[in-house]
Amino acid sequence: MKIDKIEFFATCDGTGIVCNIGNAYRSLTPGDTLVKHIDELILNNCPDAYNALVAIYGDDMFMRTLRFCKCNWSNNNNVPDIDNGKMHFEYVSCPMRGECRYENIICNPQIRAGLTIREYEIVKLIADGLSDFEIAQRLTIRTYTAENHRKNILSKLGLHSKAQITRWALENKICS
Fold first, then answer.
1. Which of 18, 32, 150, 163 gets the most CB atoms within 10 Å of its CB?
2. Per-residue pLDDT tens for 123-164?
């Protein structure tokens, strides 16, 4: 399923989720093909959140998806929550903040983007403002190798600049 942009928000009573796809609004319902798509995104990008959701809801894909959407995307705003397969999380007000055992697991999850451990290390250094040369010195690798790592990171994340890598790192809690 290929959908470019999706905005989710909670229903007025807080029990459901509404999707805005291309200015067409609909409620998320069991059996909706979008549920499977979101479930796969969670599995592929946020495995810790996915495992926690399976522990709570088992095979109920709709409930897993509903909970994830409520915890991360229940505010209606102008930033798509899913944009070309990339997830953009919101701070969602929750009465369980500070008490929920799944805080920063289901809500505010950490994204796994298929980066290697070394690439995550380089993302952190880029976010710290280091140049390719400085990264190479810090990691005792060649500048050419640091440049290749940066290019691979850009490609894997679908980004175009070091500034976008820094923003991605901040949004996904890779660095502070």
1. 150
2. 999 999 999 999 999 999 999 999 999 999 998 888 899 999
Q: Which tokens in the block code for residue 77? A: 């705003």
- For residues 16 and 76, the answer to whether their CB atoms sit within 8 Å is no
Amino acid at 85: G
Positive or negative: CA dihedral 74, 76, 77, 79? positive
The strand pair at 82-83 and 5-10 is best described as antiparallel
Residue 68 pLDDT class (50, 70, 90 cuts): very high
Query: Rounded to whole angstroms, how far apart are CA atoms 37 and 121?
Result: 30
Read off the pTM: 0.68
Residue at a domain's end among 37, 70, 87:
87
User: Phi/psi zone of residue 98: left (φ > 0), alpha (ψ -120 to 50 degrees), beta?
Assistant: left
| Alpha carbon distance 55, 158 (integer Å) | 31
Q: How far apart are CA 118 and CA 120, in angstroms?
A: 5
**Would the pLDDT of 53 be above 60?**
yes
Is the domain of 121 the same as that of 72? no
Share of the chain above pLDDT 70, in %: 98
Q: Decide: helix, strand or coil at residue 26.
A: strand
What domain range includes position 160?
A: 117-171
Contact 83, 4 (CB under 8 A): yes
